[in-house]
Amino acid sequence: MQDAIVREITVKAPRERVYKAITDPKQIITWFPDSIEGALEVGQQVTFDFGTDGTAIVRVIDAKPHEYFAFRWYTGNDAITSVLTVPNTLVEFHLEEVGSGTKVTLKESGFASLPGDRGEKQLNDNTGGWKYMMDRLEKLMNEA
User: Fold this and answer.
1) CB-CB contact of 10 with 141 (8 Å)
2) Domain locations in the chain?
3) Average pLDDT of span 41-59
4) Cα–Cα distance between 61 and 54 in angstroms, integer?
5) Residue 15 is inside which H or E element, if any?
6) Residue 5: count of CB within 10 angstroms of its CB
7) Average pLDDT, the chain
8) Count H helices, E strands: the chain?
9) How far is residue 72 from each of residues 1, 17, 38, 60, 141, measured CA to CA in Å?
10) Cβ(130)–Cβ(7) under 8 Å?
11) Is 0.90 surpassed by the pTM of this model?
């Protein structure tokens, strides 16, 4: 089974602006979850609410301003106390300056380690989901 989803976009915005769109709760809700509870800081666990599509429990793993941001997440409506206590996937954003813009590489990995049919279902759901979300981020970053 495929273990990772990789999506790349190049936007006409500096890395600082893209990083803020990914890590600032007030900005991330303009392209990704409908709402967020908590702070997107290393070591913090937050909840992303996707409305009718459910919720995700997120634990921020690493942050290197303007270069890299990573979190582990568990999607679904199960009541869990920590994303680190259940099988989860790793989402990474790599930002690279290119010309007058930024290349954004999104990678979500760990699907092969999810139990039962969960890995394949989540891989299929998130493949389409990331295309949709990254298209939204690209549109937002390319606006004046």
Assistant:
1) no
2) 4-142
3) 94
4) 22
5) helix 15-23
6) 20
7) 94
8) 3, 7
9) 20, 23, 15, 7, 24
10) yes
11) yes
- Was domain 4-142 assigned CATH 3.30.530.20? yes
One-character DSSP codes across 47-98: EEE-GGG-EEEEEEEEEETTTEEEEEEEESS---S-GGGS--EEEEEEEEEE
d(CA 126, CA 3): 12
Helix (H), strand (E) at residue 17 = helix 15-23
Helix (H) or strand (E) holding 117: none
Compute the distance between CA of residue 24 and CA of residue 70 in angstroms, rounded to an integer. 14
Q: Which two tokens stand for residue 80?
A: 């869990």
Helix axis angle for 15-23 and 118-142, nearest 10°, is 130
66-91: average pLDDT: 90
**C-alpha distances in angstroms, 5 versus 17, 26, 33, 47, 70?**
24, 26, 19, 22, 14
With b for 16 or more beta-carbon neighbours within 10 A and e for fewer, the 46-81 pattern comes to bebeeeeeebbbbbbbebeebeebbbbbbbeeeeee
| pLDDT-above-70 percentage for the chain | 99
The pLDDT score that the predictor gives to residue 77 is 67
